[in-house]
């Protein structure tokens, strides 16, 4: 009997717990539903610039809600837009007390400092704290400017350091011109280095006259190239004289790219034949700094047997020059065409030791693999092709290596998938490891995420994608990916590289799926793989719908007006081609036409799309090409 009673008591207790938890979770669920409803209503009102009504909605979200912190941020934004500084200040103080999130802290601290200053409360220490504790953050740069403004009347020398730091980090920033004005009003305290930074800032703001005045107060050997840019288009005689004087300097601080830009500019000014000009420069202006750039450009312009001797001189005498890797490739290719495979092997081995992370590295490695195949060293060739795929995953030669190995990876990516089905929403969870930032992404608070100035290239790339700034989004993600990939040196990082696949967050940003509805729709009509055509758009325009090439190609698919008019059988305008749907439709129609012209050979069709069908037909007629 007692056992039965105990069991009934335990069952009743368990049941009451279940009921209690159900009630609690039910209430919690209702509160979260209410909070989400209020947040969405508030966001809609905020977008309509009804800030008072929006504030009322956000204010009703309770402190125990999962999105309370988001609601506080929106309250702060509403109060700021209503110029209610006291409410904004109180809200930002509450956020600083509640939020432990490191990513948003500089943003909150900076706004606290700004509001303190506007409300006539002490703010200098607040700006200084941000400047010293978040040195890599944009808000630290802005805080430096604010500090300078606060102390300039008492300590102009210290203020100068803050102004100069601001110009170094944000020459195009909102406070750049004000910083420049204050600095030039105190010229007596400026050093040569200060004038150099001031000149750079003026030049980046296209204020050439002011930039020239600043540069002329600096060491000519350090800034002659920038001085020449100040004369560009306004005084060609002085531009030419400056370049020749700069090239003649034994102690020359210009980098090799600037030297090449200078000698190419010299050719544009003088209209002298390139070979004759570069030969004269090599004879009369050659020194340790200028020789590799002049010699490389002379070799490129000559394109003769003499060029190989010049490339050899660069590799031998200037192995650390930026032109040395490409020069080594030219020597390799020359010997490859002459079937001098032993020489090719020696060049390739030296190249991979000296220049493994250069742009020419995958090309040299691939053709060395072809040398190994010709010599029937198939095992070594196979190992090398696999290494190319691992070490240079985004390179064209990685895909050529896959073809040599007869792997199906490239084919699967392009051919088998017939419907584009994902976008950057699918990777937001992988990008935003921080739960709070992920919530903001879910609620499409892109402006807030931008305001935080988060120093993460993949987050920045994702935000650019959301703003449909696809070219910058792709470049940012690609540059960061290649930087991290080339810098991998620990075992953990190597393992990460081994696990890299085409569904990773990095590659989804580098190869995004944009305009998928339009591409999917017309892909069915013209029987083209949507992945193939999306790849073509990516390479042609980087998804820039307003792209215009130097030869007149327009829009996403980079179509020439005569070509588009021929395909559409009507006179097609630039305006027509700048419309994404029109451009994709006509581009697919043209690609479909090319596949018929080249007997459904996809590779020749891609080649013809880029180079023109006439060129491809000529190449096919000439076996040597």
Brief sketch in words of this structure:
The chain is globular. It contains 37 helices and no strands.
Topology:
Layout: H1 2-47, H2 51-59, H3 68-81, H4 85-98, H5 105-118, H6 124-133, H7 138-151, H8 156-169, H9 176-184, H10 192-204, H11 208-215, H12 220-231, H13 236-247, H14 256-270, H15 274-284, H16 291-302, H17 305-317, H18 324-337, H19 341-354, H20 361-374, H21 378-391, H22 396-405, H23 409-416, H24 428-431, H25 435-442, H26 446-451, H27 457-466, H28 470-487, H29 491-498, H30 505-510, H31 516-526, H32 530-541, H33 561-568, H34 574-578, H35 580-597, H36 602-611, H37 613-621
Description:
The protein is mostly helical. It is 72% helix and 0% strand. It has 37 helices and no strands. The radius of gyration is 31 Å and the shape is globular.
Q: What key attributes describe this structure?
A:
625 residues, 37 helices, globular, mainly alpha
Strand content: under 5%
For the record, give the distance between the C-alpha atoms at the N and C termini, rounded to a whole number: 100 Å
- Determine the fraction of residues in helical runs and give it as a percent range: over 70%
C-alpha geometry: globular
- Counting copies of identical and different chains, the oligomeric state is single chain
Number of strands: 0
**Biggest sheet details:** none
